[in-house]
């Protein structure tokens, strides 16, 4: 941590401040007197120092971190890739590209089972489907809830596909555990629901953690850190587009986040091209780009009848369209070190 | 709702689609054939129609809403200002400018009581203080939790100031009710924690709802709508800065949101200049601007010793600085139809 | 164009307004009376109507365009791909992936010639190099200017590679024409320098038009329209990252812009992975993603000694690194309908 | 300037790098060995060092500036406020609040003269009006050009009000000087038209420099630095809203920029509430907020018949509305150290 002092700070103020820093945080302090400002360098573990407290001192002009504030999610301390492995042996983060597909919302047994069979046939190894739905409007369809989990399990029984579904509240954890959800999704709007993250840290179920609407890459890793700090290291990161001024797409897919997350963290990274663009015809080029940028997997919305979908119809592929996209992924994945 | 059809859609497709719309949503459909496209206008209550479902139809090029999707928060249907009134008669949204002040975190009885007395003396009518703290890092101070609520109550007993404090999880609701929290704050990171909003809709306790880090004005009102749809109409909106590319300030205070929210909604609007800028010396000019733009109140962080604060020290005023700011507010408020 | 009237507008006001619209713009007006608002639909050519003038009318609540405001750049009116062809037969927009490479700044004959030979050997068909440099600081190196153009020509003589270089001002047009610059680049900061765009519209030299730092896709196309309206239809669009709140990268590559521009316009689209990320190691994954998303070409910064580069060293590849990236592009391009 | 080295860099690499830095830039280098990284601190004048060149070195992890890269615009080196004074004695930046008003576009002698008289009567000391108009569409009205300058002069003769008008190109400079334009405006889209800024640096005419659509505060000051570096220190900064994801307003007024620019620079700061919001009814609250935040002036669009305006009608006040706003400004200015 580097602290720039104000030009008019006195020697006494400076020395008092340095003594305080050494005392409070157990760090060594290196002083460097420049022509215009004096700079302090803190040596030791500064990840737990609150940068705001330092900045609040009247002689401080600015404070900058040198070390990343995340540890368990940091590749520096865990050089090897984390591969999340399900009980049935399926993996996310290994050589196999993970393909997660299914409808935005679970709507009926017929619907979820039909979609499950179709996406499995096309190559998907995981079934996604929303039982509890976060909706901007209180008047919109909120999901089938517990019944939705049952229907997902029916589809799982039929196909063997493990289930990925979103949990919206700490109150649903027991239900999700009883239902045997294979991968618990934390949605973008809950990425900084810290109470929820902390609880999920006590499970061993893999967590698919979506990047918040305007979360930085560092904030995404800090949220992963919350889960990992509790003991659950099965975290899968998901880039799903960020909010920008551009209105043509629902969000702007931050494709750079994929190679960056792979470089600075050891956690697997999947991409959601459906939510990123919000438009069905954009799913294919965005999925291609994600694989080319090094993603470990894709999560894609597929519905047997998009115009009748109870949510997110505009971005859902039909099973036929998904067949095509999955075929393309299969073709190109080997050029990027993956197979489908 | 206005639906633009693709240029190549056939008359049969169009007629089938119109029949479906009338059937499914109970609306009348007006057709308007332009030189390049055909446009459909839906007449009736379209607030509950999911725009995505419409967009998912293969003959639809784009869909646009004409009506706002919020109703209970909409001034069109409730022309008079909502004034939130506490049992002791204190109001937010009336002629009196609401001044809410206190430390970011409650740290000790001495601290909270001292700050409470000082801010009360300066003119604050409400005491804020965090017991449960949402922190980006799992390693940062997370608040005194239940004990923090007790200390707030001690300060309330001493001063009579009603308490405003943040609730982070549905699991804390009972505790907050038992503790008699006067105004429950929903933080920016929980603005779209819909499970939480729904539960708060069943209370009568006033809710201070902070705008999310990158929430639109419409999304803020939709979150208010969640609470109001459940029966709790005591919602206070809070502008606290939005995320932009500018890095000098922590967030960018969207000052326009104040007059806009006042115009399109009937709910009271307060501004948080402390979190918006993240810098103590910016609090005064931003507070002035907020009052000048028509805010119903301000929520300001005050700490008796900012450099020793356990959180957000860099943006906290000292009690002396707050005396000055409150004095300035008192001077200018009457020019904007308020008094302190 | 669709105009929503205010709920309280009278029938007389409405009829007067409609008569004015028909009179002023020669359009037919369709009236549709909804339960809450009245909506007017304008039939005819509305591309030249200023939306602000309509919005300024006191009875208007909001105005929305149905038609795109660009025509010459619009695929609807020009369904076939534009392929920009140089006198020597080289093309951008056809089956061949265009690879444009070279240093940020031209620094010396030895430097530019060496880099030109190396990138040519690796597969680049065009040489880029800055002679006039837009720099944020007046104290930074501003380019070799006219001498830089001479050195580019020396490298062109040596290698036969056509030259792509940035023009910063209308005053440089004659110089660029005399120097025989093959493709004139308009930088991001000049994307809305309308006086410049208009002048470039009178040339036949191809223009590489970079998207502005925070330009929308529509604004980029409107700037292309400025050039095309003057008679120069040789416009190449360039996505080079947009400004967002994320600070890890210099800009955020908007990968979705590639398929979108290809769909709604007929102009060729190239991607600049060097400026998008601002980091040399990100160039490869972003270049891969760009090809996978359907780009017609790439523009990549290569320097023979990046740490000694007079500008943008941090994002420049060495010739060896470029060899590797070009080799990867060659491998994957055929899967996306292109060859190198 | 602070340079963080990569953890795996060797002592020899480090020493070579340090020698190079001292040699190339004439700075002293301070080395500080931390537990995880080694940090170098550069002592001396680093404002002219290109941060990218440093970052390009293979042993460098990150580079951060401690000093601001602007000097002439920096309050640290010029503690006293700059007050821009016109030949007739009128000032911007002093005790008097500068009120600049007039139509977006000059349309006719009758129009500009009528508006000039009305705004003068209401208290404006400067007349604004566009003769050359930057328009997103090549098909929109582009201004009366040279004739517009004549009409502005006619209005100036009638009223004595000095003229503020936008210059879009270096080619217009002579025309503007001949026309005796009192204050030359550089529009948001030209804020980084460096060729133009450099030329304006050779004049003595005051420059009203508008912040770019997504320019940072530092970039705005760097553009002022370009002008000042040439010898023209009569620069007036203008905050006019920045681009964000919020779509209710055309731009988001960054009200914090006002006190920040006043603190870190000595240049006067004016606010444009008309362009910031893009909505006439927002002008009053935003103007109030600007004055309350410490602005030195306001630039407001006024048109005698907004619905018939050739540009920007939706954000123009009528003369009567401006009378009201100017009256409110007069009332509140004294509370913020200004008078009208």
Account of the protein in words:
Four copies of one chain form a homotetramer. The two termini of chain A are 44 Å apart. Chain A has 340 residues and is an alpha/beta fold. Chain A contains eleven helices and 14 strands. The longest helix of chain A is centred in the first third of the chain and has 15 residues, at 11-25. In chain A, strand 5 and strand 6 form a beta hairpin. Chain A has two domains: 2-64, Alpha-Beta Plaits (2-Layer Sandwich), CATH 3.30.70; 84-336, Alpha-Beta Barrel (TIM Barrel), CATH 3.20.20.70. In chain A, the strands form three sheets. In chain A, strands 7-8-9-10-11-12-13-14 form an eight-stranded parallel β-barrel, surrounded by five helices. In chain A, strands 2-3-1-4 form a four-stranded antiparallel sheet. A two-stranded antiparallel sheet of chain A has the order 5-6. Chains in contact: A-B, A-C, A-D, B-C, B-D, C-D. The interface between B and D is large, with 38 and 38 residues.
List the helices and strands and how they pair.
Four copies of one chain form a homotetramer.
Chain A: E1 2-5, H1 11-25, E2 28-33, E3 38-43, H2 51-55, E4 60-64, E5 84-85, E6 91-92, E7 98-102, H3 109-122, E8 126-128, H4 146-159, E9 163-166, H5 173-178, E10 183-186, H6 194-200, E11 207-210, H7 217-229, E12 235-239, H8 257-264, E13 269-271, H9 273-277, H10 280-292, E14 297-301, H11 319-332
Parallel strand pairs in A: 7-8, 7-14, 8-9, 9-10, 10-11, 11-12, 12-13, 13-14
Antiparallel strand pairs in A: 1-3, 1-4, 2-3, 5-6
